[in-house]
């Protein structure tokens, strides 16, 4: 990380209540291994004003290479950058920013690559008849974008149902036949038996709690369903434990994190690294 008198380049992750993040561990280990003079830190922004201040600080700091942005500031950051890559424009949210010359900031979305790449490694072809997507926030949005032309029918559920309906309309623009609903046991009982891709894009997944009640998973989750949980703390969520016990193929949230990190490293340093290596760093 630090070699002699060389001034460190700065990168950071911007969010709120993100002490759990594994990103500093992954990037800082990479910097040591590859002798890159950079440091990746966590910037907690309790308010939107704090977040905007951090974005401005990066813009004005010649040593800042860029940053990652996570909940709840992906949309805010989208509105504060000067340029966007084509995927970020279509998705409407960013998770990665690069500082260009003259302090211009360019926003990217690499979350969608973190969804599709692990699925492509697992399922061949990564095409699905019925997707059940739990959650309708930024991560769910990136997942749907990644899966356009790969799912025949998508059911999206959220706590209120309102955000799920909004996301279903957005999915329609991407050519996905999607229905948004309020999450309920009735919906899960009806949709889960027909689901061949189940994605949790909510924080409501722990090693003792699953967004779909355990008794419904026990009865209606089939071995043929691929189960993707975006949560990576804990890594082995109850949802994934049950899925594995049934013989389902599973993707944990760390695969998503390292696949998007791989693309961030390419954006910031022009360096190609493999996701497996970054996963080893995260787990070391
Ligand atoms: N592994 C990775 O690299 C990676 C990358 C991005 C995100 N993530 C993770 O993905 C999760 C979602 O992130 P986000 O940024 O999209 O969050 P977000 O914007 O806060 O959205 C969360 C969504 O989950 C819904 N929700 C919460 N609890 C629910 C429940 N019990 N049942 C049904 N829906 C529920 C919310 O419903 P309402 O809309 O009705 O409130 C909301 O739509 C987080 O845990 C985040 O850490 C992981």
List keywords for this structure.
284 residues; alpha/beta; Rossmann fold; 2 domains; six-stranded parallel beta sheet; 12 helices; binds NADP nicotinamide-adenine-dinucleotide phosphate
Topology readout:
Elements: E1 9-15, H1 23-33, E2 38-44, H2 48-60, E3 64-69, H3 74-80, E4 83-84, H4 86-91, E5 96-99, E6 105-108, H5 111-122, E7 128-134, H6 138-146, E8 151-158, H7 162-173, E9 177-182, H8 185-191, E10 197-200, H9 214-220, E11 226-229, H10 238-245, E12 250-251, H11 253-269, H12 275-283
Parallel strand pairs: 1-2, 1-3, 4-6, 7-8, 7-10, 8-9, 10-11, 11-12
Antiparallel strand pairs: 3-5, 5-6
The structure holds NADP nicotinamide-adenine-dinucleotide phosphate (NAP).
NADP nicotinamide-adenine-dinucleotide phosphate binds next to α5, α6, β8 and α11.
Describe this structure as you would to a colleague:
The structure is a single chain. It is built from 12 helices and 12 strands. The chain has 284 residues and is of the alpha/beta class. The protein has 2 domains: 9-109 and 256-283, Rossmann fold (3-Layer(aba) Sandwich); 112-251, Rossmann fold. The strands form 2 sheets. It has a 6-stranded mixed sheet, with helices on both faces. A 6-stranded parallel sheet has the order 9-8-7-10-11-12, with helices on both faces. A hairpin with a 5-residue loop joins β5 (96-99) and β6. α1 packs across α12 (275-283), α5 (111-122) crosses α6 (138-146) and α5 (111-122) packs across α11 (253-269). The two termini are 17 Å apart. The model has no long low-confidence stretch (mean pLDDT 96). Bound molecules: NADP nicotinamide-adenine-dinucleotide phosphate. NADP nicotinamide-adenine-dinucleotide phosphate binds next to α5, α6, β8 and α11.
């Amino acid at each position: 990380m630090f070699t002699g008198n060389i001034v460190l380049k700065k990168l950071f992750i911007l969010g709120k209540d993100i002490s759990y993040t594994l990103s500093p561990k992954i990037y800082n280990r990479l910097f040591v291994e590859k002798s890159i003079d950079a440091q990746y830190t966590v910037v907690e922004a309790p308010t939107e004003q704090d977040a905007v201040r951090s974005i401005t600080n990066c813009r004005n700091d010649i040593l800042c290479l860029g940053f990652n942005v996570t909940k709840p500031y992906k949309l805010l950051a989208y509105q504060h950058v000067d340029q966007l890559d084509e995927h970020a424009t279509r998705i409407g949210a960013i998770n990665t920013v690069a500082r260009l010359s003259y302090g211009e900031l360019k926003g990217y979305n690499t979350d969608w690559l973190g969804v599709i790449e692990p699925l492509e490694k697992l399922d061949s072809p990564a095409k699905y008849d019925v997707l059940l997507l739990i959650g309708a926030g930024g991560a769910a949005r990136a997942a749907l974008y990644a899966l356009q032309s790969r799912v025949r029918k998508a059911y999206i559920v959220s706590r209120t149902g309102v955000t799920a309906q909004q996301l279903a309309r957005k999915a329609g623009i991407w050519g996905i036949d999607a229905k948004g609903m309020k999450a309920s046991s009735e919906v899960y009982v009806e949709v889960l038996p027909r689901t061949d891709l189940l994605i949790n894009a909510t924080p409501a997944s722990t090693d003792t709690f699953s967004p779909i009640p355990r008794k419904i998973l026990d009865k209606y989750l089939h071995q043929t369903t691929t189960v993707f949980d975006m949560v990576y703390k804990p890594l082995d969520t109850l949802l994934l434990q049950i899925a594995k016990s049934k013989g389902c193929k599973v993707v944990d949230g760390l695969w998503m994190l390292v696949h998007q990190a791989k693309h961030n490293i390419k954006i910031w340093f022009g360096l190609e690294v493999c996701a497996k290596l970054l996963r080893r760093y995260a787990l070391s």
